[in-house]
Amino acid sequence: MNDDQQRLLRERFHGSVNRIQFGAADRARILREMGLPADTKIPPRPVIKFDTLTQAGGVIARHQLSLTASTATPDRSGDKIAQEAWSLDNYRKSGPLLWQHNSSLLPIGKCTSIGVIGGKLRATYELATEDENPEAERIRKLIAAGMVRGVSVGFKPGKWEFSKDKSRPDYSIDFTSGHELLEVSLCNIPCNPECLIDPPTQTGKSITALGDRAAADQRRRLELAAIKAGGGRRA
Fold first, then answer.
1. What's the CATH code of the domain at 143?
2. Tens of pLDDT along 159-216?
3. Pairing of β 179-187 and β 208-209
4. Burial 14-25 (b: 16+ CB within 10 A, else e)
5. Is 76 contained in some domain?
6. At CB < 8 A and 24+ separation, what contacts does 222-228 make?
7. Is 12 domain-assigned?
């Protein structure tokens, strides 16, 4: 296996830590397409270390943010996700918001509503308080300062095909149906540059205190989208 193949495999399977949960059959199919034997060893996952954060005293008010989690535009890996084909039922039962796709850490928030609106996967979240997760408070401050805006999805593929679009990178994939959303993450560099936390409102804040009318309207629109898709209403 040459250096280019190692780089492609590392980006495909570990590019964003664990963004796409490929199964064994999926991996074998990708290796076969690349002309590599089925027993090829996948380059190791990068190790991400986090500093320990000492909790400060006090509890902040619970805050909510809205964001675009996914669009149909090919991402930086060349992959394209069919938006109307998202499987969201299981995610609506727990709805974790993670930091950089790292599921070994405590979640930094929970989903309050999610659905496909205008061809985009849109969602709202409540951030954990400082008392619940000090790391979430540090990230909240970075969001408020405009330093963190990236969003990325972690999912289990359903049906997919290699893209025939020559303008996209080699081995780009079209995820066509049945992709199950596992988690949504805030991140420094989103794989899809269109996936971002919403820009500041007229109040100048990207994060709003719960009860804000615009945030409530957004939640109602997402709940209606979920009902239309047969996903029911989230409490």
1. 3.20.16
2. 999 999 999 999 999 999 999 999 999 999 999 999 999 986 544 455 555 445 555 5
3. unpaired
4. bbbbbbbebeee
5. yes
6. 222/113, 222/114, 222/115, 222/117, 222/122, 222/123, 222/124, 223/113, 223/115, 224/115, 225/115, 225/116, 225/117, 225/122, 226/88, 226/92, 226/113, 226/114, 226/115
7. no
User: Quick one: pLDDT at residue 49?
Assistant: 42
Domain count, the chain: 1
Whether the per-residue pLDDT at 105 is higher than 70: the answer is yes
In this structure, is residue 48 part of a structural domain?
Answer: no
Residue 80 phi/psi, 5° resolution?
Answer: -130, 135
- Phi, psi angle pair for 96, to nearest 5°: -75, 145
End-to-end CA distance of the chain: 51
pTM: 0.71
pLDDT digit string, tens, across residues 119-170: 999 999 999 999 999 999 999 999 999 999 999 999 999 999 999 999 999 9
User: Which helix (H) or strand (E) covers residue 115, if one does?
Assistant: strand 109-117
Length of the chain: 235
Q: How many CB atoms lie within 10 A of CB 207?
A: 20
